[in-house]
Structures are given as C-alpha cells and as structure tokens.
Design the sequence.
C-alpha cells in the first residue's frame, strides 16, 4: 500500500528550522536507509515558504495570487516521501525513524488514493 509521508514543521517552534530540529546529516542518513530498504517510490524536499506562491479564490470566485511568506500559516510541509509498504504499521515505523518526527516537527501519514 502506498503512503505519503509529509514531513511537517511549525513556524513558532524553536526546535524547527535553522535554529533547531534535526541536523541535515540525520535526514541524509534516513534517506539512505529508507531508499536502500526499497520502499521509496519517490521523494523530494521543498524550498522555504518565502518563495511560495498561493493561488486562491476571492469572494466573487475570481482567482487571486499572493507571494509568501504567509503569516497566517503556522505549519509547513518541508518534504514528502511516497512509500510502498505492507500497511499502516510499517508506514508508522518509518515515520518514527524519520528525523522529521523529532521535536519541532511531525510526520503526517496519508494513504495515497488509488485513482
């Protein structure tokens, strides 16, 4: 079964980001381990939110765009793995190993829809 592992952080957490959280070397080691285990379908990291663009609708249904950073957003996705494992318990075990679930962040697991 395929799961998306969303590596989440929180802007107000001092243990997340440049001043704290997992060291990049921890992420490199985790990436090597999970890739060598053969469960990774694909993975990618995201650039910082200050270069993001948001597309939404206004009250009249027209599309509007705005550039980041977005003060109203507290959480952010730092990266994603799509993994193919036997079930949710195995996905949870990988999420527990991820430096993304260390203090300052969390890993959200969601099944990939079959369509």
Sequence:
């Amino acid at each position: 079964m395929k799961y998306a592992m969303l590596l989440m952080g929180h802007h107000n957490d001092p243990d997340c980001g440049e001043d704290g959280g997992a060291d990049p070397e921890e992420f490199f080691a985790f990436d090597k381990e999970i890739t060598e285990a053969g469960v990774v379908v694909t993975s990618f990291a995201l650039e910082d939110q200050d270069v993001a663009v948001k597309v939404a609708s206004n009250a009249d249904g027209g599309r509007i765009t705005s550039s980041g950073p977005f003060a109203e957003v507290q959480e952010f996705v730092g990266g994603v793995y799509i993994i193919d494992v036997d079930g949710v318990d195995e996905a949870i075990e990988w999420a527990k190993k991820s430096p993304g679930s260390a203090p300052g962040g969390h890993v959200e697991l969601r099944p990939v829809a079959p369509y």
